[in-house]
Amino acid sequence: MLRTALRPTILGQPTTAARFLLSPSTSLSRSLSHSARRLERQPTFTTPIEPVKTYTAQDAAKPLPPTDLPVEDYASPLLHTASFFHQLFRYAVFTSVGIVLVGVGSVAAVHAWVEKVELAGGSIEGDAESDPEGWGEELEGWSGAWRGGGTDPRLGFFARAAIRGAWISQHWGGGIVASPVSQTQQALRTSNPTGNPFASSLGGTMIGGKSVEQPSLGTEVGDAGWRLAESYLVYALVRAEKKGVSLVFPEGHERGTPQSHPTSVTYTTTPGGGSGVDRAAVELEERLAGLRERIGGRYKLEEAREGWERIYYALSASAEPTGWETREKLRATRKLGELSARLALLWRAGTEERELEQSKAEGWLLGGLLPVLAKADRRTLDRSTLAEDSSSTFKKVASPISSFFAFWSRSHPSSTASSPTLSTIPTPSSPSTPLRPELSTLVNLLTTHDSTTSPLHPATYRSIIASLISLEAQLARQHSLPAAHALQSSSLHFTQLLLPHSPTTPTPLPTPTLSSSSTAIATASHALTHLHLATRTSVLSTHLAEVSLALRLPSTEAFSLSLLQGSINTTESVLHALESSPLLKVKSTGWSSSREKILGRAARQVQRDARVTGAMSANLVGLVHEMGPRATPSGWGRGKGKGKKEESEWYGGPAVAEAFYAKAMEFAKGDEGKSGEGEDVQGMRIAREGFERVRGKVLGEKKGTV
Known about the structure:
The protein is mainly alpha-helical and 706 residues long. It is built from 22 helices and two strands. Strands 1-2 form a two-stranded antiparallel ribbon. The longest helix has 44 residues.
């Protein structure tokens, strides 16, 4: 019954009995009635808040439904890591590509600069208007100088890149990896000037005494850049040979002897001019031989000589040599003679090996000079000609151009009066030692040469004079002083005949530009040739004065001082003419025109040679005045007996010696007095030592007079 009373009605409201049972009090009844009224409201759709579930141990043992399992997201960390490494990879790839591009671009830019700027310039064959005197042929060619500069396109990409790499390594360097000269060798060189032919007569301090011994050391220079450049050039020559660019090396000749010439060879026309000789290959062989000569050491010097031998025999095989082949052949013989002389110094004095190398050096130099001069004078070289020249007696007369005596035939008297300033100077008697047939022929060719009718190019004349200076210096080093004296005198006469004006009055030097006319370029080129020849007359005059002093000829001091004073005056005039020319401001590298670069380099070379020659002459004058008059053998000069002193009107004492040593330091100090920039280190050292010596004597004399 109770369940029936408590059952709700259909409408959801309780009965009266239920209300009574459930609410024993009136307040309870009110609240129930109030709740009933409240339940009569319409229900809302608000989602009730779920109560917090509490789990017990029994509930934990039951498995949860799939919808209630926790969700773990592994994709987000993986994607984050992958994104990080992707960005890192992109940065690495882009940075690497950028570095590679910058590196490749830098290498390409450097090679382009070297090709178009550093190696630009040169004498284009057949272009006489841009280079009438052939100054461009004296530039270092790197397989393309004969084409106007750069490298030869026929060599291919790798060979051309190797050539440019060799230039970069040689000029920009790789550092010194080993000391080329030790302290012991340096002390030995400075204390043993036995290679100087004037050391025995003038106390071992004559000009060039210590520099002669400098190349005698067999130590190689350990420059990494030079070594790398040598490797590049060897590789370039191998690649060039595969491209068909190589020297035609005739078979059947004996290497090492200048007298062995090929008799027959097959010729083919090759680029670069000439029959059978490729000019690009000649330039590469010259660069490799020159680099090995610079490195030094017996092994490298012998390799350099072999390279010049290949060049010489290839050029000698030409049936009709062109002008450039003649000049390159002269250069090859000169380098072969100089290398043989350096190799001779590596052997002890008096040994057969040294005498053999010295004879080779003399033979190479004579073998290059005699054929060129004989062909220019239309003479043949045979045994009868040599015998006739050796039997001739050469006597001293005044030169047609200057008062410097030369060995001139009696059948060619002077047609021009001698200079009044030098005609009163007594000249020493020439030594009466007979000359060998080859030297006699060379002296005769030099004294009878007519430059007005000669077909030789000015560049060929410059090569001849360079070989003459090398030969007379070699004779002096071999203590063949009479032969050196004869050759110096005839060479001085030969050089003076080539000068259009007096060497002490050089013409002004104009500056050609890209817009300059061919006339202005020719004028500047001729002026440079004049200055170059004037400098060479100064060199030969200084050497002649040295040998005259070493021979102790009568009245030799006065004669030698006149030669040296003329040399100083000439070098001062040359330097004055060059200092007023803007050509010296033209850089050898950079954005300069080919004409300006060629003439600018030649002007700087002439300036450097003039300074070295001036320092050498002034040092020698200072030494003569410092030493004072010497005793002469009986019958020489005005002394009546052995041991008599010469008259010393020329003697100026320590004060004059001090002034000339100071002048020598001015010559040797270089550009603007900056150390290392064109400074003549050898001349500066000799001048400073001499100045310090005589300075003490001058101060002592002043104190004594007080």
